[in-house]
Amino acid sequence: MTRIRAWAARRHGLDSLPMTIHRRRVYILPTRFGLLLAAVLVAMLIAGLNYNSNLGLAFAFLMASAALVTMHHCNRNLLGIEVDAATEVDAFAGREADFEFMLRNASSVDRRDVEIRCLTSTGIRSVLARSSDPVTVAVPVAERGILRIAQFELRTRYPFGWFHAWTYVQGALTAYVAPAPHGSRALPAAAGLGAAPRAESSGDEEFAGLRAYQPGMPLKHMAWKVLARGAEPAVRSYTGSSAQPEWLEWSSLEGLAAETRLSQLCSWVVESDAAQRVFGLRIPGVEIQPDRGAAHRIACLRALAAYGAPSP
Amino acid sequence: MKERPLSRAELTAIVACLALALAVHLGSLPHWVTATVAVCAAIRLLLAYRGRAAPPRAARLAIAALAIALLFVQFRTFNGLSAGTALLALMAGLKLLETETRRDIHVITLVIFYLCVAALLQANSFWLLAYLIAVCWLTSAVLLRLTSAEPKPDWGRSLRHSGRILAQAVPLAVVFWLFFPRFGGPLWQMPDDGGSAESGLSDSMSPGDINQLALSDDIAFRVQFATAAPPAQELYWRGPVMHDFDGHTWTPVHPAILSAPALQPEGPEYRYTLKLEPHRHNWIFALDWPSHWDLPHGALTSDYTLVQPDRVSQPIDVAATSHTHVQAAAPLSAVWRRRDTAPPAGNPRTAELAHTLRAAHPDDLDYVRAVLALFTRQPFYYTLTPPKLADSSVDEFLFTTRRGFCGHYASAFAALMRAAGIPARVVTGYQGGTFNRFADYWIVRQSDAHAWNEVWIDGSGWLRVDPTSAIDPSRVDRGLNDAVNADDRLASRWQRRTVWFPDVRLRLDALRELWRERILLFDQDSQQHVLEWLNIPEPDGQKLALVLTVALCLVLSWLTWEVRREADPVRKESLVRAYARLCAKLAAGGVARRVHEGPEDYARRVAAQRPDLGPAVTALCRQYSRLRYAGAGAESTVRQFAAAVRAFRPRLKPPGSRAS
Known about the structure:
The complex is a heterodimer of chains A (312) and B (660). With 312 residues, chain A is α+β, with helices and mostly antiparallel strands. Chain A folds into two domains: 178 residues, Immunoglobulin-like (Sandwich), CATH 2.60.40.10; 100 residues, no CATH class. Chain A contains six helices and 17 strands. In chain A, the strands form five sheets. Chain A has a five-stranded antiparallel sheet. Chain A has a four-stranded antiparallel sheet with strand order 1-3-5-8, with no helix packed on it. A three-stranded mixed sheet of chain A has the order 4-12-9, with helices on one face. Chain B is α+β, with helices and mostly antiparallel strands and 660 residues long. Chain B folds into three domains: 145 residues, no CATH class; 285 residues, no CATH class; 74 residues, no CATH class. Helix content of chain B is 49%, strand content 14%. Chain B is built from 23 helices and 17 strands. A six-stranded antiparallel sheet of chain B has the order 7-10-4-1-15-14, with helices on one face. In chain B, helix 1 runs antiparallel to helix 6, helix 3 packs antiparallel against helix 4 and helix 21 packs antiparallel against helix 22. The N and C termini of chain B lie far apart (78 Å).
């Protein structure tokens, strides 16, 4: 199978997305069910000939012809579909990378049972005539790093499951797999390099949310009402334009293994982002200036994912 | 691929398809097999509706082993049609019990397909074929739904698409049908397990037997005469001949002796083609008396019945020649004379009557006439519902009940002849037939079944005597149906009394005959005719294979084009295309439509800039906006608009521009 994939990759070269599936790249083979059907068709034919039964033969011929027609319909089910994909996705190790695809069917026939396969994961859906539909393929990712998928597959068994038509798309998909966010260290206080310690509160601070209580946090910010409800102890966190940027530092985690450090940093990134705080990230080779927002968060997570990976 | 459990609807649908496929086998399946399959289906459905999984594996295995053992005990084999079908049905039923995933359904659909073929192997009915194709259509729609991802097509769409696939398969199937090489006979002999019951005459005759047939409208055979047909009263179609009588039942010589004494034909020769329906016996109902026949292994028995070694299990055509009048060329051998004069045991009054009559009529022919006159004069009745006869059946019939059917009369007549020392035998077969004037052939139905006698007259040979005609002469002239009592309760009979019905019936039968001729009897010879028709010289197997390949390529290319076309993106509507063409023409004329301009604004601007085009463009644009925005335009008006746009040829420059 890998050899076939490699051959297809050489044959088609790199594809640019969105791509319309041309008939020259759709392959088809009978499924196990199709092979069983072929055996039954042969048995029908032999029975018809043996009993010299013209009606038996007529039925066998009709079924055999239907199988041949089915082959064409199976092949057609993929032809002309336009496929597009989000080429870069983010994920955490130990979870799944959700690759998003968009299938567009500009023809007047429904395309039932279109399956997209990345590695061993699949997403399946019917794309009705003149419509576009998203398909998500959830690829489990176990390890931190950058997962590159050079090729994915579109497959179908429609209409009867007797044939299996497929095509390879050489579209580079990348999943940035950030480390699984965990770690027991408390967030470093908002005291980056050279930042002077300042009063715990000032008038223009805004309430930004709750975060888990860690020993050493000021009791003043303790969310007593939450504690009174019997929940985990939490503290109120504040943010404000005057908030000092906090630096999430590789170097502040001396004595830990690299992956543990990354996990801890990741956990901090997630936490700080959830609290909408301004933060920066410093790991060997990368320094991301303090900022906040979704793009910043993604940049930080990708930097953590890419740690130690050769730059592309 | 991950297997997902089946939904209730899917399970119910496949059970329904299996039931429809099994319905045609109900007659031949042992009842317990049908019951087992039904119970399995019911259990599985019940479990599904209760939301529970299939029964445990051990239970399923135990049931399967028990059922298959029972089946083997019943059939002693799994080979052959009945046993094979029963095994398949049973397997499908048991498979239902463990059906959890798509894969299990796949197996069941294959069983359904094979059950369909098994039902057709010994059948000839167009309607059965149509029904089974419908079953197969339904089954494929179930498969289609099963294969579809969400959103699943509704049943209408599934049926439409699988129907389309079947319809597109028809041209291919026709090519296979026409050019796939056929073999004359079976590839290997299958055990003759009597998968379908014998029909028509049986190989023995008890008085009263034939009246079961008299109620049947089934067709025994059709006959097309190449020469002029003989008069209707000479249409005796010869079947098995009975020699031995045990007082209750007449039986033929068994095994048949295949050497017919020579005959001297007299009178005109009749040539005809006998189109026999399968009856699963090995005799062929030739016209009395056959002299030539076109049948590879056909032969005449010593009784002049045409037989072949194999049972007739498929429709066959037999071309034959007969003479209705013959003379024996050789005297009757002593063995046969002894056998055919053996009087029926235990009928003393019959013997006494015979002796009395014989004393008065020493001449054989006189005696025959006297017995016939007895039937005419005495109050003998002809009825389909005669009283039951005890052991001394002839005595009882002749002296007590005096009501009977052709079998009773033939039996009594033969007994009276034998008691008087005249060799006599009973011939069974068919008499008469209905002429189909729409297609020039005779239809002989089971209701034309008849029994008559032959007596040996020294010097001239076997003489046919039909004692039934002595009772009711009209019966021989007009067939059995009119002889049937008026209080006949069969529903189908009313139809025959209406005026229009016989015509419709005959026309329908002509269609049926066409089906039989073109479809059921299509064989190597027909394939040769097709090749000859295609102007292929000296057709043989190789050329047939070549034609098959070429025709398949042609049809497959068409199919590829036809199916692929659907995958193309939808082209713009013809209306939009026509409008685009109009705009292009005007742009060439110097007034290009601006992107934001609607048809009305555009027309106004064109009218301002090119007053010469104004009226035409205003009309066209108004027509377009009406078609486009004022509800759906009919196809014809869209076409009119397109034609008007095509006809619109604006001059590239305004008329006055050259002068300026």
